[in-house]
Amino acid sequence: MNQERFWRGLVYAALVFAALYYLIPLYVMLTTSVKDMEEIRTGNLLSFPQNIGFAAWGKAWSSACTGVSCDGLSGYFLNSVKMVIPAVLISTTLGAINGYVLSKWRFPGSNIVFAMILFGVFMPFQVLLLPMAQTLGWLGIASTTTGLVFVHVVCGLASTTLFFRNYYVGIPDELIKAARLDGAGFWRIFWRIIIPMSTPIIMVTLIWQFTNIWNDFLFGVVFSAGDSQPITVGLNNMANTSTNVKEYNVDMAAALIAALPTIAVYVFCGKYFVKGLSAGAVKG
Amino acid sequence: MGALAIKNVTKTFGDTQILKGINIDIESGEFLILVGPSGCGKSTLMNIIAGLESPTTGEVCIADRAVTNVAPKDRDIAMVFQSYALYPTMTVRQNIAFGLETRGIAKAEQNEIIARVAKMLQMDHLLERKPAALSGGQRQRVAMGRALARNPKLFLFDEPLSNLDAKLRVEMRVEIKQLHQRLKTTIVYVTHDQIEAMTLGDKIAVMKDGVIQQFGRPQDIYENPANLFVASFIGSPSMNFIPCHLIEHDGELGVSLQGMASPYFISLAGRPNLRARLGEKITLGIRPEQLDVAEAQSSALECKVKITEPTGPDTMVYTEVNGVEVIARVHPRLVPPTGQSIKLVLDMKKVVLFDPVTESRI
Ligand SMILES: Nc1ncnc2c1ncn2[C@@H]1O[C@H](COP(=O)(O)OP(=O)(O)OP(=O)(O)O)[C@@H](O)[C@H]1O
Ligand SMILES: [Mg+2]
């Protein structure tokens, strides 16, 4: 009995330690962002702020310098929003349709197509940079938000297709046969039977895609310019702009602003994420 | 009028032939059973009838109309699946309405049909529930309701009862039979349960490895099985198969059976085509109820009672003849205690003979 208590205590101690280990950076960022420069210079990294103020947040949002212009991150944030919403919706929709076809309307060679799509999941995106730049040029959407949306849709398609396909394989084929006998066709079955059953996997895919696209830096820095750059690029520009004093509080506030949407998505939808993943795995 | 005709249908997946030339013809209003062991191609044949798969060669006619190239929804059929295939996100009412809606039936008429079906299957109180909130038997009922709502020319049932417990299975079996008698719609019914096959069918097609072994009325198949497979598949407990040698005794052809005492000769005189097989091995088939306890004095096959299994009306007596286990179904009052001997006689009119090599009927 006592021994069991001891081991249990040990496990909890380890867990608490791990949690702290991961939370301390967040704590440091939060506290630093509400301190003023004076306090940062004289105080301790881990000390609790004496007088909390949001001046750094305001500056990061609207007046910090990112390269030559000094308008803060607000413009970049808006760019990211304009990019992430269509990119997530389009890649999720196409993934659902692909998954539906590859699991329920197989055609000769559909397994080969699936294998090739799967290959896309494992491909390092760096290989894509040159051919993609070329393609964007041909399409006339280089350095635009549309171009960035296009890139994210193309690159996200492999994972979204995989997610939906694996989820739909678990839906019995007899359901489709029954619907066909009921007179429903491809789209009617998709909308009326399949989509209503897909809530968990839709949530998983939305969260996954949102996080990946919002946090993407590589495509953002390569395929966008000036007025279409996303927040990650803005953050980078800001951190690299040399001012006479390094304003840690503004940098921290800016990083938090950039991370806020993904944190919010996890806080509000995280439970669907876990539920969706396990639903996909267990359902036979 | 022909309700369903299947002409020379074959089906090949990759390079394995699953169906090898199926021919079936049934009249309107008949109840056809497709029975056979798992994997013999029953569901494949059903899917071909429904149009969910197309045959590699051959033709399907429903109500005297060739439908080989007609879409499933235009074949005027309804199907009940083994897994019921109820739409999980819809209520029972929506499940039934879905097919009516796709066919463009007006809302008022839909409600009328749903009410009629619900009444027929006594499931009014289930209409607003989702399938997850139903028991296995209720789901089965809803699946049937969905098929009935269509009022089709042909019902297809693919092992509709196999997911139910034994008691419910018997109840639903009776209900399906009553339904058929009331509606008189042609039904094709797949099962691997030979009792369902015997009790429900007007006609039975016994399948094995993609070939119809025998097609006929249940009683004919029971009494005159075409081969060893059919004989062993239909009937429970299964027919006894006793390996014998065909010999001549006092000028009569026959076989000798060895129980626990001296060999017992039974004459097969009067059966055609036997003379040529003199001295060869043959398999003698006899059903448990065709073995009976002999009257006191007469000569009989004497064997040892190894196990007895009372079932109530009859008792199954396990004995050994010619080195194989033989089951006799006898009246409980005539059963001697285990270990003692029992004298059996065979109903010679019913005995069937098989070639042990080709397994076909002699
Ligand atoms: N789409 C397919 N591709 C390849 N082989 C298939 C396909 N569908 C069925 N088969 C094979 O065809 C054979 C017959 O299958 P079928 O489902 O018709 O059997 P069944 O008689 O209905 O069996 P059960 O009683 O288990 O339902 C099986 O060996 C199966 O593996
Ligand atoms: Mg089957």
SSE blueprint:
The complex is a heterodimer of chains A (284) and B (362).
Chain A: H1 2-34, H2 37-42, H3 55-62, H4 74-104, H5 110-122, H6 129-139, H7 145-169, H8 173-181, H9 186-194, H10 199-215, H11 218-223, H12 231-240, H13 248-282
Chain B: E1 2-13, E2 16-27, E3 31-35, H1 42-50, E4 57-62, E5 65-66, E6 77-80, H2 92-102, H3 107-120, H4 136-148, E7 154-158, H5 166-183, E8 186-191, H6 194-200, E9 203-208, E10 211-216, H7 218-223, H8 228-233, E11 240-245, E12 247-249, E13 252-257, E14 264-267, E15 281-286, E16 291-293, E17 301-304, E18 307-310, E19 315-321, E20 324-330, E21 341-346, E22 352-354
Parallel strand pairs in B: 3-8, 3-9, 6-7, 7-8
Antiparallel strand pairs in B: 1-2, 1-4, 4-5, 9-10, 11-15, 12-13, 13-14, 15-22, 16-21, 17-21, 18-19, 19-20
Bound molecules: adenosine-5'-triphosphate and magnesium ion.
Keywords:
heterodimer; A: 284 residues; mainly alpha; MetI-like fold; 2 domains; 13 helices; 75% helix; 0% strand; globular; disordered C terminus; B: 362 residues; alpha+beta; Rossmann fold; OB fold (Dihydrolipoamide Acetyltransferase, E2P); 6-stranded mixed sheet; 22 strands; binds adenosine-5'-triphosphate; binds magnesium ion
List each distinct ligand once: adenosine-5'-triphosphate, magnesium ion
Q: Spans of chain B of 5+ residues with little confidence (pLDDT < 50)?
A: none
- E-strand count of chain A: 0
DSSP strand content of chain A: under 5%
Instruction: Give the strand order of the largest sheet of chain B, numbering strands 1, 2, ... along the chain.
Output: 6-7-8-3-9-10
Q: How many strand elements of chain B? A: 22
The structure class of chain A reads mainly alpha
The gross shape of chain A turns out to be globular
Radius of gyration of chain B: 25 Å
CATH architecture of the largest domain in chain B: 3-Layer(aba) Sandwich
User: With helices defined by DSSP (H or I, 4 residues minimum), what is the helix count of chain A?
Assistant: 13
CATH class of the largest domain in chain A: Mainly Alpha
- Amino-to-carboxy terminus distance of chain A: 40 Å
User: Helical residue percent of chain A?
Assistant: over 70%
CATH topology assignment of the largest domain in chain B: Rossmann fold
**Could you give the distance between the termini of chain B?**
35 Å
Counted by DSSP, the helix tally of chain B is 8
Helix content of chain B: 10-25%
- Rounded to an integer in angstroms, the radius of gyration calculated over CA atoms of chain A is 24 Å
Largest sheet of chain B: 6 strands, mixed
Largest sheet of chain A: none
